[in-house]
Specification:
Number of strands: 15
Largest sheet: 5 strands, antiparallel
Oligomer: single chain
Number of helices: 13
Shape: globular
Structural class: alpha/beta
Helix content: 25-40%
Order of helices and strands: HEHHHEHEHEEEEEHEHEEHEEEEHHHH
């Protein structure tokens, strides 16, 4: 008889998925044992998401869309990519290289819709390069571009790392929130890094130890509210990525879409447990140990930290807005109106997607 379901409120994975999750769990347990019984949450997330052949983004599970675990804006309607083309086209017009570099291109949907619209506008990019660490997603991107944009089939390039020199637009749609953060806690006035240990029954448990990296307590001391017990994320890797991209950018701009807040909201005194969440079959839970390898793990973005990282590389903040304000400014409602008869099924389908992109109760503000 099958043992009691460990997560009864969530859809149960099939037998093959369970076996895969157990392999991921075993790899994490080995890592905990190899680190004297304590693995920082940042390293736990790294294994669960990116371990070769095992991690959520490295093992071939269907992640995006209704059959996956979450849906991103480009998957909902081609009008998203068409609207983004307005901003990207303006960036390309101001550069000599007219290059586009996209990090973490998902299913390839944004690349297809963006390139198609730029071509339609008579403002094509000179090149499109995708930085993608997931072999599964890279295969899906190649297939989508070959199927829907055959003229670009041999013109899109895939890279393991950003190019040394970029003259154009860098795109990151829900990339920064997938970079594993450190979780830092202040308990009784003492700094800790939050991590994972193994309980007597073999279960994963949260635990705290003194931070090994002194930057964590120093950074948390500058950003956290002034008093009381508090825990939240510090994402040094995401900040380093943006600073690195800024140094590679010789002309143009970085455009990043993500869930997040400016610092005053991110580290609000009432947000005492941070923002780390697991996403599984379109359900969200604060338990990071749900089906390792089968669930996505994300934390919101401290946009103030991202802006500061860009400024350290010589960039300036050109704009900061909610997704709703940005897309309206880029003409998404005009593009919706151009889809045809407002009573037609095609229009109603696109209107429903645009509503989700713009609504404060959906994706518009967060």
């Amino acid at each position: 008889r099958r043992p009691r379901e460990p997560y009864p409120a969530l859809p149960a994975p099939d037998d093959d998925a369970r076996v895969h999750s157990e392999r991921v769990r075993a790899a994490i347990a080995d890592a905990i044992s190899g680190r004297d019984g304590f693995l920082p949450l940042r390293d736990y997330i790294e294994i669960a998401l990116y371990a070769p052949g095992l991690g959520y983004y490295a093992a071939g599970a269907h992640k995006l869309g209704p059959a996956g675990d979450f849906t991103t804006a480009p998957e909902m309607t081609p009008l998203f990519g068409a609207a983004v083309a307005t901003q990207v086209g303006a960036i390309l017009e101001a550069t000599a290289g007219r290059e586009i570099v996209e990090l973490g291109a998902g299913s390839g949907r944004l690349a297809v819709d963006l390139l198609r619209e730029l071509d339609r506008l008579g403002a094509p990019a000179s090149s499109y390069r995708i930085v993608e660490t997931s072999p599964d997603l890279q295969a899906r991107q190649r297939e989508a571009i070959a199927r829907e944009l055959p003229a670009w089939r041999n013109r899109v390039a895939w890279l393991d790392a950003p190019p040394l020199r970029i003259d154009g637009a860098v795109l990151m749609n829900e990339v920064l929130d997938a970079i594993p953060p450190h979780v830092v806690a202040r308990i009784g006035g003492v700094w800790h890094e939050r991590g994972v240990t193994i309980g007597r029954g073999g279960e994963f448990l949260l635990a705290d130890r003194a931070p090994v990296d002194p930057r964590l307590s120093a950074t948390a001391g500058q950003r956290f509210p002034g008093a009381g017990d508090y825990a939240s994320e510090i994402n040094l890797a995401a900040e380093a990525l943006v600073e690195d991209l800024g140094r590679r950018l010789v002309g143009g701009a970085i455009v990043a879409f993500d869930y997040g807040f400016p610092r005053r909201e991110y580290y609000h005194p009432d947000r005492i447990a941070g923002t780390l969440m697991a996403h599984y079959r379109h359900r969200a839970t604060a338990d990071p140990f749900v089906w390792p390898g089968l669930a996505d793990l994300t934390a919101h973005v401290d946009f103030t930290a991202i802006a500061e990282a860009g400024e350290r590389a010589g960039l300036g903040v050109a704009g900061y807005a909610s997704q709703a304000a940005f897309l309206i400014g880029c003409g998404i409602l005009d593009r919706l109106a151009a889809t045809g008869d407002p009573s037609s099924p095609a229009y109603l389908r696109e209107a429903g997607a645009v509503q989700k992109l713009l609504s404060p109760a959906e994706m518009g503000e967060l």
